[in-house]
Design brief:
The chain is an alpha+beta fold. It has four helices and eight strands; from the N terminus they run ααββαββββββα.
């Protein structure tokens, strides 16, 4: 099964997601690093899927061992950040809550906080702007985490 067929079967059909982009780069090589054209709700479904260990509404969509492997560190990026398989891994500064997350251009973030049983999506259109990710981290630590953590 090719990449596009797999994504349509697994995510679009199984999880009821919208989707408006191609998964092929110009040389017909699978493009899996972004550009899927997903809505904030669809991104939240992916976060919830991973928070639930690969299950969506009681149905196994992704193997649990893959979820564990994808969300554990395989490379150290800097003193605070590691990288799994398409997921960044670090603790956010406020009270050090471990999270794994995806970053997107513009400051978009899809975050999973397993210890808080919480998935968060922040969308933004600050494309190619200096400080876009730092601005989102401040929003997360000063407002979102502050609202849910005693």
């Amino acid at each position: 099964m090719d990449m596009t067929s797999r994504v349509v079967t697994v995510f679009v059909v199984s999880m009821g997601m919208g989707w408006s982009a191609s998964l092929s780069a110009p040389l017909n090589i699978p493009q899996t690093g972004g550009g899927l054209g997903l809505s904030g709700r669809d991104l939240l479904k992916i976060a919830q899927l991973y928070l639930n260990g690969g299950s969506w509404q009681g149905t196994r969509i992704v193997d649990e061992s893959w979820v564990r492997a994808a969300t554990q560190a395989h490379a150290r990026i800097d003193d605070d950040t590691e990288y799994g398989y398409l997921w960044w891994i670090r603790s956010l500064k406020r009270k050090s809550y471990p999270a794994f997350y995806m970053n997107g251009n513009g400051g978009n973030k899809v975050l999973v906080f397993p210890g808080l049983d919480m998935a968060v999506v922040v969308t933004s259109t600050n494309f190619n702007t200096r400080g876009m990710h730092e601005q989102r981290e401040k929003l997360l630590t000063d407002y979102i985490l502050a609202a849910v953590v005693p």
